[in-house]
Amino acid sequence: MSSLPVRPSLAARLRRMLERLSDGLVERDALARQVFLAALAGEHSLLIGPPGTAKSALARRLHRAFAEGGYFERLLTRFSVPEELFGPLSISALEQDRYERHTAGFLPEAHIAFIDEVFKANSAILNALLTLLNEREFDNGAGRMRCPLVSVIGATNAVPDDAVADAFFDRFLMRIVVSPVSAAGFGRLLQAAPDDQGAPFPEALLATERQALAQAAQAVTLPSPVMDCLRDLRSALAQMEIVVSDRRWVKMVALLKTAAATEGRSAVSCWDVSLLPVCIATEAEEQAQVAAWLASRLGVREAISPPRLTRIVEAFEAQLGAEQKANDLDYDADGRLRFSAGELAHEIGDAKGGAEALRMTYQRRRRYGAAHIDARTAQVSALLERIERYRREVLAQIDDLTQYLDQSLWMAPDFAVAAHTHLRDTVAAIDALRERAVSAREGFVALPRLPEGAGSVPEPVAHEAWPD
């Protein structure tokens, strides 16, 4: 994989920072990766889950991962007023007939922010947040101020169903379902050390480094195979009835480019697409459905997937079965076997019952010339060559996934296991189909042959087209 001129130590530093983010937070490794990547891409995360699941602790740690800038945190209620987020009104400005706020120490001047129970805010607050989150701007009096906001982490127990909430909800690129610690992790939870929320992060990112990373991400390319994968994903989402806005697709691609840039890659990998389920779906079940689809597609071209290859092999097996059962009987209009005197005497012998018995009992397997058999075996041999090329392609994808994992900061281990298992299962399926194709070729070779003459070349076995 080619590299960009990004600081060579960046990936190692980010890896250490990820370890610090999740240190002591039981079963929150994946959550830390997702929130940190969103922040590096300049995007926002929404954590959906019950209280007491380390959402605020992670937000405070994320703030310390950035060397410069302020942190803002607020718990909203249905009684919250704009002053709580955007600052109090300026008395001196009011005396001069200006409606302005003191924003120092409040959200408009924060770099990292955590807003708990974010959907409990009234429509006035939500509408102001829409512009701030998306455009990084805040209307303060008659002017609009630029905000240094890097990322907002929102938290909620549930997402309400209304138009204003939907627009606000779409501002969060990552929507992450957070569950309580599992039974397996409960013991570690009880033994975890208290979180030292004031401890500084070693090697925290400077603003200049964030800007350099953003420039590197813009230079990352989107290869054709990744484009094809995204097109297939979009079609699959339509079948799943999951709607993704055009704006969200653009932001997701920017996220993939950021992931590639952090690892020093000049192009997005198909494996990067595994990061998208939390950007696409809201419910945990839908996210799992999208992840399962990706695990079964990444690294395997759908056009030559085992199901399609199976249908091709079955076409040859069906043709072989038909030719093995074929005979050369020739009946007249009355259903009687047509033959000349003495023609079949050596095969019939002294059959009792005369012509009527002969009509009902005589059978002779069809014989095939060398031209026919050679044509059939050549076609199966060509199929076997394509199967072998496909097998090598999948094995190469397994190697590529292994190399990707060696340097990946962001891929979830569970997804890596699922993708690797699917690829190995695909190789096993290919091997089984190869054996069936070899058996079919042997069957064509063993067809009964004409005693003399090469016979004729048959039409090729009809099957689905095999793409290049």
Automatic annotation (TrEMBL):
Domain AAA+ ATPase: 41-182
Gene3D superfamilies: P-loop containing nucleotide triphosphate hydrolases
CDD domains assigned to the protein according to its UniProt record, in alphabetical order: AAA
One Pfam family recorded for the sequence: bpMoxR
Domain of life of the source: Bacteria
Protein name: AAA family ATPase
